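Input record (one chain):
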Amino acid sequence: MTAPSDADHMVHALGLAARGLGNVWPNPAVGCVLVKNHRVVGRGWTQPGGRPHAEVMALAQAGDAARGTTAYVTLEPCAHHGKTPPCADALIAAGVARVVTALADPDPRVSGQGHAMLRDAGIAVTEGVMTPEATRINAGFLKRVTKGLPFVTLKLAASLDGRTATATGESRWITGAGSRRRVHLMRMTHDAVMVGSGTARADDPDLRVREMGATRQPVRIVVDSRLSHDPASRLGRTARETQVWILHGPGAPADRRAAWAATGTQLFEVPTTKDGHLDLTFAMRTLAAEGLTRILCEGGATLAAALVQTNLVDDLAVFSAGALIGAEGQAMLARLGTTALADAPRPRLILREACGDDALTLWSF
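The corresponding structure, as predicted from the sequence alone:
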């Protein structure tokens, strides 16, 4: 039987890293596997809140067996003193013989220094194993560090003919239980869930993860320029239990600001563009500055179209139900201003998945 390769062990580490998605912001989701004589002696992943780091968890599990191992780490070990000592130092102190990584860390506090510390200590370092896969998992962290923006997944649920509701506004439920459960899984892997003011008023959503056991809840965000959503809504009533953030414009009335602040909601004033709409790029930079790396936007049509138009969407997740509503129904996207087919946004299909009687297609911009 052929011994596992570096790629095989990195697949293991990447699977561990994915467990941290939605739980570790603003830190990256990292996995670490320690291997000696083709046997795993320790493994770990970044813990909720971002600490302890994956390497520390794996070393603690391995104990003295860590000496002489190869460490497979999905991201370059940190080299700076923050709230915890550098992971590169921990690997050196444990007597690890070799380190294999998938990605260099673009954070200027690390950025090659972790690899250099390991090599200076006499540890063999192999870089670039399964880089595309590791990049995909930590796309949110990487985008926040390099561009100052979070990774945005736009989720749309519609009939086969692209309608999200009937002409009367009835929308529950176009898609079935399988799709709804899959959406809760998506919420688990994102730092925040976002809706527009129209969706907030129409649906009075809760936006928390349900039926997935104990889990860290995402921040719940509403884009609401005039603070039109009711503070007595489900979001307002539960803001002290699970964070609610509202992005509003300079013209939001003072009494509405006070009413929402009294619920425990955090308010962020965002400037408006020349056409009077909130500056969504500024808004996303604000959210990234607060530490968010991955945001799931669940609509509605106006916010979805605005995010597409401003090139802020990274992934598009479309849940399609086996139903036909017709032209009188409500479209899943508002106007994009597309007049020529050559100008139409064309994301790349990366996943097809059955969700009960529905279908999920995932597209990347």
